Amino acid sequence: MKLRLFIPVVLVTALIAGCGGGGGDSSSTSASAPPAETQVVVQASDGSFNPAEIFKDVSPGVVTITSVFQGGVSDLLGGGGSAGQGSGFVVDKDGDIVTNAHVVTSGGHLNGGGAPHEAKQVFVEFGDRNRVPANIVGFDADADVALIKVDPDGLDLEPVALADRSSFVVGEPVAAIGSPFGEDQSLSIGVISATNRTVEGLTNFGIDNAIQTDASINPGNSGGPLLDSKGQVIGINEQIASSSGSNSGVGFAIPVTSVRYSLDQLRADGKVDYAFLGVTSQSLYPQLAEHLGLDAQAGALITDVVNGSPADDAGLKGSTGEDTFQLQRVKTGGDVVTAVDGKPVLANNDLSVLVAQHKPGDTVTLDILRDGHKDTVDVTLGSRPADVNQ
């Protein structure tokens, strides 16, 4: 069972305490990082991993976020209403703060259902104890990324750098900073346990290239940064796989590539647009290909095509039958996508990753295998809908 790293708040008396001087509360790499002169970069002089230095220099830019979803402060103090707490981090001097979408929204896939809705109020607490309100600039439900903004007047904002990386190495050390169980400014360390995982967002579209880590992350860590040895953000801590509701050594972070893609568009328009093909698929591997008599070693077996989607308009075919092989049900008879614009589809999520590198309106060429014959199909990509019902 995968759980969001978001902790409900029952009593929020601290929210009405005085604030300090300040304000008023399927993966691409196209976005730009904030200006380098406003970013903190940390690494030991010998290039080694130094958690103490990372925490010292990065933690001032990590915040605790409290969101009120129903009622007001008086309702919450009286035992009514609802609120929750997560984490986030400052990305520029203008007051922009990044967190998970599910920290500042209610509803959505795996969060009660329905379309995600913004919180009624959002408050941000800094490491220096300043606590101010924030506005929600926008959120990306597909990538579980949100941008909120505080008035920077009177605040000593210390932005955290986004890593300019798109690949990560299993075994490399990482640090997580956030507010597990409401305990703000908490550090944990570990390693990258795996890469290229696919995790669930607030919609039924998966989030590709997620980072798996054994760094201890728990409810309240949602939205906080996962940092490399330079003290740069390589991901946003988003969920854990757990049977108990607390850390079990398997945590997941949204990759910085997705964060950059979302952040760029949220700053510009307050929303994020993704290219959309309109298929679901299963992975093809050598033994399965041999079993099905397919002349391909890898690819994405199309199981379903969304009615009226770009894939449907281009004539792509979904499955017509079903088989059982190696303890799994396999839908058969559909097209097999083996490449996108000449780039091979080796694993199932490669198809969504390659599509996500394009913009709505782009035309891509798919290499396919249909009824034993190789062919190509040109597809003009659409805009990803809020949700898809087959």
Q: Can you characterise this structure?
A:
12% of the residues lie in helices and 39% in strands. The protein is mainly beta and 390 residues long.
**Percent range for helical residues?**
10-25%
| Helix segment tally | 6
Which strand order does the major sheet show? 11-12-13-16-15-14
Q: Give the strand content.
A: 35-45%
Mean pLDDT across the residues is 85
Most strands sheet:
6 strands, antiparallel, barrel
Query: Over the alpha carbons, how many angstroms does the gyration radius reach?
Result: 22 Å
**How many beta-strand segments?**
26
Oligomer: single chain
* Secondary-structure class: mainly beta
Give the CA-based shape: elongated
Uncertain segments? 10-41
How far apart are the first and last residues' alpha carbons, in Å? 24 Å
Outline of the structure:
The protein is 12% helix and 39% strand. The protein has helices spanning 51-58, 73-77, 256-269, 286-292, 310-313, 348-356; strands at residues 2-4, 7-9, 62-70, 82-90, 96-99, 105-108, 113-118, 121-125, 131-140, 145-149, 173-178, 186-200, 206-213, 225-227, 233-241, 251-255, 275-276, 279-284, 299-305, 321-325, 328-332, 336-340, 343-344, 363-370, 373-380, 382-383.
